[in-house]
Design a protein that fits this description.
mainly alpha, globular, 0% strand
């Protein structure tokens, strides 16, 4: 069991490193690639689970970001989506407060009742997803831009020398 897990973790690490190097080697401006990466991370916080790759591609093309970087980053961070969505609920509840008491006609344990679900989880989740997505996108953009700029300068120095 341990060997199986360590082998899969090694494969996953190699795959992530391969995609990271592909993004670094993209022939586009560092700003466009970094914006694509930030968009991909941002979209993983939003509640669009089945169409997020398509949305990443469309938005990146419309905004003239690097579409490959956006789609690849969205796909790579899919493993962290449960963590992101949990963080969204906590952030939303922190911003909005605990929420209203359930109406008297709804049983307290009926969390799946649409009215109660929206007030207790839906609205905090949506608020938290936008806030966390923006913060994560910004947090990823600047390091990505710096790494891409550094790689571009290094590549330009090698060609000139």
């Amino acid at each position: 069991m341990v060997n199986w897990l360590s082998a899969h973790l090694r494969q996953w690490r190699r795959y992530v490193r391969y995609k990271y190097l592909k993004i670094l080697r993209l022939k586009d401006t560092p700003a466009k690639v970094a914006k694509g990466v930030a968009l991909g991370v941002f979209l993983d916080f939003l509640p669009i689970p089945f169409i997020s790759l398509l949305v990443a591609y469309i938005i990146a093309r419309l905004a003239r970001f690097n579409a490959f970087a956006a789609v690849t980053t969205t796909a790579l961070f899919k493993v962290a989506v449960p963590f992101f969505w949990t963080l969204n609920v906590f952030t939303g509840k922190f911003i909005l407060g605990p929420g209203p008491a359930p109406p008297p006609h709804i049983k307290t344990g009926a969390l799946l009742h649409p009215e109660l679900f929206f007030h207790r989880l839906g609205l905090p989740f949506l608020v938290g997803s936008v806030i966390n997505g923006l913060l994560a996108g910004l947090a990823v953009y600047y390091p990505a831009y710096y790494l891409l700029q550094r790689r571009l300068a290094k590549r330009s120095g090698q060609k000139a020398g």
